[in-house]
UniProtKB/TrEMBL annotation:
Domain Aminoacyl-transfer RNA synthetases class-II family profile, chain residue ranges per copy: 1-324
Family per similarity comment: Belongs to the class-II aminoacyl-tRNA synthetase family.
Organism, as annotated: Rhodothalassium salexigens DSM 2132
Gene Ontology biological-process entries: histidyl-tRNA aminoacylation
UniProt KW keywords: Aminoacyl-tRNA synthetase, ATP-binding, Cytoplasm, Ligase, Nucleotide-binding, Protein biosynthesis
Gene: hisS
EC nos: 6.1.1.21
SUPFAM superfamilies in UniProt: Class II aaRS ABD-related (SSF52954), Class II aaRS and biotin synthetases (SSF55681)
Enzyme class: ligase
Annotated Pfam families: HGTP_anticodon, tRNA-synt_His
Subunit-level organization: Homodimer.
Name of the featured protein: Histidine--tRNA ligase
């Protein structure tokens, strides 16, 4: 290998990209905890069956995109392509049903073998929120409100449009499925090969097809709204009323579907045009049949996930960290004392780097290259007086500060930088 490069569809994350993603994660964790969610971290790989059961054997993710391999024990393992399946498995594995309703949030890397494009990688990162055990439309409203608050705090609410639809209850879906099969069977010769397969196993997924011929047929397909039971209509009306009450704008999108049978009631996506064709930045819905399909008891659930990279791309700019302080000890006694001073300042929250090498001019040059705000110079004279020379690297002014007062002076300046 002549050059060491990351595998196609992966990348090294550092600098501004890392700051953008960290800001998304931290904001999400803070918002989720205000909504009473507890953090969960599931393994990045699971037995393949976990994802085949939840994503469906005919889905593009399972048939074309999963990273699946046989490990040294002969088990078939898959790197997780999404997080909900692992959370549902963890709910069953750890007996969480005994806790009643659980609210869980998490984040981490996901893996899909697909064509890389802007904001989409083969190793990508998501944030995820799930409410398991609550069958009420209020849970859907809570999750949508949390998503809206996250986007608002990131400054992205106005850059996205919320699309919502109802997938009805099982009776609604059964009626609609029969209508779709009847309609598409009359036009079977015009369907793509993929959609002909879906017609037999999962006709709702035809509505998601990107094939131009399929899309033309979908335009005249039966409408889900015409097959909803009164109970399903009431559920969706409650969700929409909640959105209105909370001042969350939305668009009713009847073509927004989820193909698998365990989905029910609310489906939603926050969509932007700022990232090109791949415009969904946050999506989710209710999955009342998922836990049962995995072998557990009938258990309602609702959740959403969002791409951290995509949200990071939408930010106007990454939050800048506080500018560092450079501690420059001149001489061996000062170097020994600097270790203690550095520990104490860092314990107080000062972002600080210690530079032990070279003459004073070289060290100050390095401090300027690091965009340091202050240089704290510690020499024999300063030590004798119990102080340090504090140089303002913006103005060049320098003054003597008592060591006991140093932390307060530096922290006051840091607060001014961050606006706190």
């Amino acid at each position: 290998m002549s050059k060491l490069q990351p595998v196609r569809g992966t990348r090294d994350i550092f600098g501004e990209d890392a700051r953008r993603m960290a800001h998304v994660r931290r904001t999400f964790a803070r918002v989720a905890e205000t909504y009473g969610f507890d953090e969960i971290a599931t393994p990045v790989f699971e037995f393949t069956e976990v994802f085949k059961r939840t994503l469906g054997d005919t889905s593009d993710v399972v048939t074309k995109e999963m990273y699946t391999f046989e490990d040294r024990s002969g088990d078939e393992i898959t790197l997780r392509p999404e997080m909900t399946a692992g959370v549902a498995r963890a709910y069953l594995s750890n007996g969480m049903a005994a806790q009643g309703t659980v609210r869980l949030y998490g984040h981490g890397p996901m893996f899909r073998h697909e064509r890389p494009q802007k904001g989409r990688y083969r190793q990508f990162h998501q944030i995820d929120a799930e409410i398991i055990g609550d069958p009420s439309p209020q849970a859907d409203i809570e999750l949508l409100a949390m998503a809206w608050q996250l986007l608002t705090e990131l400054g992205l609410a106005q850059a996205t449009v919320l699309h919502v639809n109802t997938l009805g209850d099982p009776e609604s879906r059964q009626s609609y499925r029969a209508a779709l099969v009847d309609y598409f069977s009359q036009h079977k010769d015009r369907l793509s090969d993929d959609s002909r397969t879906r017609l037999e196993r999962n006709p709702l997924r035809i509505l998601d097809s990107k094939d131009a011929g399929d899309r033309a047929l979908v335009e005249d397909a039966p409408r889900f709204a015409d097959h909803l039971t009164p109970a399903a209509v009431a559920f969706f009306e409650t969700v929409c009323a909640g959105l209105g009450r909370l001042g969350i704008p939305y668009t009713y999108d009847q073509r927004l579907v989820r193909g698998l049978d365990y989905y029910a009631h609310t489906a939603f996506e926050f969509i932007t045009t700022a990232l090109g064709a791949q415009g969904t930045v946050l999506a989710g819905g209710r999955y009342d049949g998922l836990i049962e399909q995995m072998g557990g008891p009938s258990t309602p659930g609702v959740g959403w996930a969002a791409g951290i990279e995509r949200l990071g791309l939408l930010l106007d700019q990454a939050p800048e960290p506080a500018r560092p302080v450079f501690l420059i000890p001149m001489g061996e006694p000062a170097a020994d004392r600097a270790q203690v001073i550095a520990r104490d300042l860092r314990a107080r929250g000062v972002r600080l780097e210690v530079d032990y090498r070279g003459n004073l001019k070289k060290r100050l040059n390095r401090a300027n290259r690091r965009a340091a705000r202050w240089a704290v110079i510690l020499g024999d004279d300063e030590l004798a007086e119990g102080g340090a020379s504090l140089r303002d690297l913006d103005s060049g002014e320098q003054r003597r500060v008592a060591l006991d007062d140093l932390a307060a002076v530096l922290l006051a300046d840091t607060a001014g930088q961050t606006g706190h």
